[in-house]
Design goal:
binds NADP nicotinamide-adenine-dinucleotide phosphate; 7-stranded parallel β-sheet; Rossmann fold
Length: 244
């Protein structure tokens, strides 16, 4: 069974809703300390109210795209405040269907900013040995089934997630000698605010066990953050109910 000590601190981005909220609450329930990051302070506070051990959840309001190159310094300031981190779950992200005819640079940059550039620079910050606990610390990035099996209209989203999967595999192999593990989790449609009407229609009948729940993904992410997965790095786990 997975459990954590209070001294084990985890950064969770996107903790104000959906998968990130689920990961923050599960880590907290299992005993860890969580630094929960998102833009909506009210939603972060609502999440904290649901926590089993609210005294071990610390809220940080931050737009991760406002100064992407400054993110390594941001991680350093978090470490100065909370101590070295055992792990990070990067769950912030932005979806959307954008057929090729509607693609423009502004849309692409907005999606790539939060789905690709920000996680790369958060990884750079976490990988700095002054900020992590070394051996067996772990980063998990939420990519998407759409980063591998790319449906129509996904130029921006699939591009950002495919790039994330490729980059994280490279980073994992580069920093393995430092003891830090890096993995991606790639879900298909999960019941969160990101699962819009069009996505639901598209998924109709595709998943033999129905739409995925946040807990279906959160359990995998927490396993990859835990020492139970100490021999696993540079992987991308598809959670799609066998649909692909
Ligand atoms: N749901 C699915 O079907 C599905 C499938 C595959 C992959 N995913 C991926 O899973 C991840 C989580 O998605 P979700 O389904 O949980 O969606 P969600 O409920 O919409 O959560 C997205 C999170 O990202 C945060 N966020 C967005 N932009 C941000 C920014 N600029 N700075 C800081 N935080 C930001 C949001 O917080 P604030 O708005 O408070 O900032 C929110 O907490 C995403 O990467 C998504 O692509 C989801």
């Amino acid at each position: 069974m997975i459990s954590f000590y209070r001294e084990q601190g985890f950064i969770v981005t996107g903790a104000s809703s959906g998968i990130g909220e689920g990961v923050a609450l599960l880590l907290n329930e299992l005993g860890a300390t969580v630094v929960a990051i998102a833009r909506r302070e009210d939603k972060l506070n609502e999440m904290k109210l649901k926590a089993k051990n609210p005294e071990n959840i610390f809220i940080e309001v931050k737009d991760l795209t406002e100064d992407i190159e400054g993110l390594p310094l941001y991680v350093k300031t978090l470490r100065a405040k909370y101590g070295k981190f055992q792990g990070m779950a990067y769950c912030a992200g932005l979806g959307g269907i954008h057929p090729l005819r509607s693609v423009d640079m502004e849309t692409m940059q907005k999606i790539f900013a939060i789905n690709y550039f920000a996680p790369v620079f958060m990884a750079k910050g976490f990988a700095d040995k002054r900020n992590n606990t070394g051996q067996r610390s772990s980063m998990v990035f939420i990519a998407s089934g759409g980063g591998i099996h790319c449906d129509p209209g996904m130029t921006c989203y699939s591009g950002s997630k495919g790039a994330l999967i490729a980059t994280m595999q490279s980073i994992a192999r580069e920093i393995a000698p430092t003891g830090v593990r890096v993995n991606c989790v790639s879900p298909s449609l999960i019941e969160t605010s990101m699962a819009g009407e069009i996505e639901r229609q598209y998924a109709e009948g595709k998943y033999p066990f129905g739409l995925g729940k946040v807990s279906d993904v959160a359990n995998m992410i927490v396993y990859l953050l835990s020492e139970q997965s100490k021999w696993i790095t540079a992987q991308n786990y598809i959670i799609d109910c066998g649909a692909m």
